Amino acid sequence: MSTGREEQVVDTCYTTIHTLDKQKGKKQKRVQYMKKDGKFPVMFLKAPGDWSTYFVDIFTTLIEIRWRVMFLVFFLSYIISWLLFGFGYWLIAYVNGDTESVENNPCVENVRGFTGAFLFSMETQATIGYGFRYMNDYCIVAIVVVTVQDLFSCFLDTIIIGIVLAKMASARKRAQTVGFSKFAVVNLRDGVMCLSWRLGDFRGNHILEGVVTAQLVRCVRRPQGFIAWSYQDLTIEEPEIALTTPATIIHKLEPGSPLYSVDPDDLLEENFELVVAFTYTGDSTGMLHQTRTTYTPADIRWGQRFKDVLKVGKKHYKVDYAFFNETIWVPVPMVSAEAFSRKRHPEDGRIHVPSVKRNGGTGHVTVEITEEPVVQTFL
């Protein structure tokens, strides 16, 4: 096929299931709008040396940098400040003649060279306490420099501690403990074809309030040659959820849905991404968090449902996350939701779907839809 993928037919004794495999030698990779971990593969191209936007909001810049860079900034900020103020004390001693004669009254006792000045600077800023080196009260310039260094030390400590605490409480780390399933599935629920995916909190504490959103994103190439993004919102059934146990997020394929007229064959040719997000407030920190991921057409499994992960024990509900991403086959018509609704007969609750392959032969399958939720019976 033109998409660089080949179609396989798997006989499940119920209907024909279409899967996607990459063809050897015909790999066609497309840059995704968003990666699975929620990061966007976007690189901003700016003029060389233009770092003004990062320095204007330096606090946010320091929070977003990596920890190893943060530790480097932490160490360099103190070492450089010790060296600068040490140079100032050495300059005072040089002007006062303390470096040449030991007979005069020094501004700082026992500071006769740069090494002594550096040690005095470190003792002052780190508040170690003076012993062998101390300042005399008749040297006004040295008193002014010590005062400035004390104020600078308090300011620097506040900034460094604040940045470290902000990085430790970063919402990104909490978002990594809330995740979506690797795949989305299409199946029948209460006689309606639905697209669904799973959401779970992998920590012991529970999220009691959160909102789920979903968008269908397409890359559109304009006739003029530039690229634009098309965004279509998907209606979520019960978008506000309490994530005490893994939840299944459901989008009904009804009129108005961007996927209403898409069947399994069309899905192979589609070029879109389903971007889903879960925005919630952490119960421990009170901070706003967001977890997001994306599903491509290859991540959507038609005719499957998720395995049950919730079991009832004697005293507790038990959640087995080993089955969080596991799916099983279920009988689902291999037609679009639009065709499913159009061909359904209200008088007997039956629809006739196209012929399917089974054990090398061709036959017709009649699907009977009952009123019980998520129950499909093939005759």
UniProtKB/TrEMBL annotation:
InterPro entries found in the cross-reference section: Ig_E-set, IRK_C, K_chnl_inward-rec_Kir, K_chnl_inward-rec_Kir_cyto, Kir_TM
Molecular function GO labels: inward rectifier potassium channel activity
Keyword entries, A-Z: Ion channel, Ion transport, Membrane, Potassium, Potassium transport, Transmembrane, Transmembrane helix, Transport, Voltage-gated channel
GO-annotated biological processes: nervous system development; potassium ion import across plasma membrane; regulation of monoatomic ion transmembrane transport
Positions of the Inward rectifier potassium channel C-terminal domain: 179-343
PANTHER family: INWARD RECTIFIER POTASSIUM CHANNEL (PTHR11767), INWARD RECTIFIER POTASSIUM CHANNEL 16 (PTHR11767:SF24)
Transmembrane segments: 69-92, 140-166
Subcellular location: Membrane
Name of the protein in its database record: Inward rectifier potassium channel 16
Principal subcellular localization: membrane
One Gene Ontology cellular component annotation held by this UniProt entry: plasma membrane
Potassium channel inwardly rectifying transmembrane domain residues: 34-170
Organism for this UniProt entry: Oryzias melastigma
Reactions accelerated catalytically: K(+)(in) = K(+)(out)
Family per similarity comment: Belongs to the inward rectifier-type potassium channel (TC 1.A.2.1) family.
Membrane topology of the entry: Multi-pass membrane protein
